[in-house]
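Quick one, T. Sequence first:
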Amino acid sequence: MKTWPILFLILLFTACWLSTPALAGTGNATSCTKVTAKIEAQDTKLSADLRRIYREIAALRADFNKPGMREIFGGLGYIAGLFGVAAFVASRRKD
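Structure tokens:
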């Protein structure tokens, strides 16, 4: 779990707590709660977006583990080349 959002919220609560007594009656307590609610909403949205991105990266990594057309044709060419060498050696022995 990432600790930076928790540390950020602790710093935000501390700043709101320190500024509220000095500015009592001006509505800073409600603005602090609004700001913290907005930050928590953004944190929730970012967490959901990051989870989606991590799933996409995992799916891409799974696709990279599968052999592609290049690897398949390369393997077939390697096998054909081995049979060609074997046929060449077999034809040389008959002479």
